[in-house]
Design a protein that fits this description.
The chain has about 475 residues and is of the alpha/beta class. The chain is built from 18 helices and 19 strands. α8 links the parallel β7 and β8. It holds the Pfam family HemN_C.
Length: about 475
């Protein structure tokens, strides 16, 4: 990655320049760019051998490690959910899954220099709180035995929590295991919305956990919200936001609900007529940005907000913010090891993905091989474009002179086609130029996925129906 000058977060994050007609015009389908190339470019000619070779190459670079563990189980299905999950109340499924995770760790660690520090750890799902406290402890012990976990003060060890399946004892146990950051799923506090998405979750559940987490000294708390759910209105979601602001999380993720029932079966339980209109959805988004910025949160980009002293905001100000499969990250320059069903790794210059179904994942590991089912090795062009897209989405600006210097290219010549595509965006006020630096305006921040698409050669000028809408 190029050495970046200090990148200040844009001072004006207001909606003063809001243009609803413009947003509607640009509201097409597009990638979220948690990777480039995106997962749609992964292919099945890529095998486990490619992964082991990448692990060996990565040892030579000696970058720190980030480990993601996917726990696919949850006890009750939420109708909006697009995650890879297995809805079950059969907790006995966890033990054989933990055994397979350990096999995957063993197979991976054979090729890995495990003296490299694990700076970042993230458990997602499903919900990791499907596991019992003893199973959580067992999983941490296995991770430590295979990779060597860190006790450094600046480590970022996070876990996703379902407040319906956790209590204060869960949080105390997680702290003892070394976790220092929590992400709590809330989505919406309005009872009518909760009923429509099959997620009954009174505020007191979230509030109790947050109070205990603050008392225990967890470094950062994140709450997940979703806008665009059935029966939401600007007024109802503003009431949810007011309650959330009172809880004072360090971070907020406010995701855009993408209704894609043809891809995600649970969403077929949501009636299209119950969803807010496109106009109402934009009104919700505008009110969200206004309320959160008024409450002191910085709009990091896309759907992420953080308090000024949170590591996400600090990293953005320093120009070291990164994107990975969990969204924005403050720990750049790590090789990412993905473990479990559907998990994706980014090691050296490759992406590798595990099967999305449990049976295929188990069968591969039972045969003594990594469960890689597809992936891609990045070309030099991929690496250059991945760098540019990441810096644009993280910094909300792009210094083409710095890009050219790092990659030893004439950046303006290299990206002639991309810059031509951005001319319309410039005329519409989404970006401005100052010398060699492209800067994203406040209205452009909401359309950052569209701006990044200009640099994506895999799209061939067309968005894919498999991607969600931008706004």
């Amino acid at each position: 990655m190029p050495a970046c000058a200090t990148v200040a977060a844009p001072a004006d994050q207001s909606t003063a320049h809001w243009n609803q007609a413009l947003l509607r015009r640009y509201d097409k389908s597009g990638p979220r760019y948690t990777s480039y190339p995106t997962a749609l470019a992964f292919h099945e000619h890529f095998t486990a051998d490619n992964v082991t070779q990448a692990l060996v190459r990565s040892n030579q670079r000696n970058r720190p490690l980030s480990v993601y563990v996917h726990v696919p189980f949850c006890r009750k299905i939420c109708f909006y959910c697009a995650c890879n999950k297995i809805a079950t109340k059969d907790t006995s499924l966890a033990e054989p899954y933990l055994s397979r995770l350990d096999r995957e760790m063993v197979l991976t660690s054979r090729h890995l220099d495990t003296s490299r520090p694990v700076e970042q750890l993230h458990w997602g799902g499903g919900t990791p709180t499907f596991l019992s406290l003893s199973q959580m402890g067992d999983l941490i012990d296995r991770l430590d035995a295979r990779f060597g976990l860190s006790s450094a003060a600046d480590r970022d060890y996070a876990i996703e929590i379902d407040p319906r399946e956790a209590d204060v004892f869960t949080l105390r146990h997680l702290q003892s295991l070394g976790f220092n950051r929590l992400s709590l799923g809330v989505q919406d506090l309005a009872p009518q919305v909760q009923k429509a998405i099959n997620r009954h979750q009174p505020r007191v559940l979230t509030e109790t956990l947050m109070d205990e987490a603050h008392r225990l000294g967890f470094r950062s708390l994140n709450l997940d919200l979703i806008y665009g759910l059935p029966f939401q209105t600007e007024k109802s979601f503003s009431e949810t936001l007011e309650q959330v602001i009172e809880l004072s999380p360090a971070r907020l993720s406010v995701f855009n609900y993408a209704h894609m029932p043809e891809r995600f079966k649970p969403q077929r339980r949501i009636q299209v007529n119950d969803l807010p209109s496109a106009e109402e959805k934009l009104a919700i988004l505008r009110a969200t940005i206004e309320r959160l910025t008024a409450a002191g949160y910085i709009h990091i980009g896309m759907d992420h907000f953080a308090k000024p002293n949170d590591s996400l905001a600090v990293s953005q100000a320093n120009g070291t913010l990164q994107r990975n499969f969990q969204g924005y990250s403050s720990h750049a320059q790590c090789d990412l090891i993905g473990l479990g069903v559907s998990a994706i790794s980014r090691i050296d210059d490759i992406y590798a993905q595990n099967p999305t179904d449990l049976a295929s994942y188990e069968a591969a590991l039972d045969q003594g091989r990594l469960a890689t089912i597809k992936g891609v090795r990045l070309t030099k062009d991929d690496l250059i474009r991945a760098d540019v897209i990441e810096r644009l989405m993280c910094d909300m600006q792009l210094d083409l002179a710095a890009v050219g210097q790092h990659w030893k290219i004439n950046a303006f010549g290299y990206f002639t086609d991309a810059l031509e595509k951005l001319r319309t965006a410039e005329r519409d006020g989404l970006i401005t130029w100052q010398g060699d630096t492209l800067s994203v305006t406040p209205i452009g921040r909401l359309l950052i996925r569209h701006l990044a698409m200009a640099f994506d050669t895999y799209l061939l000028g067309h968005s894919s129906p498999r991607y969600s809408k931008i706004v």
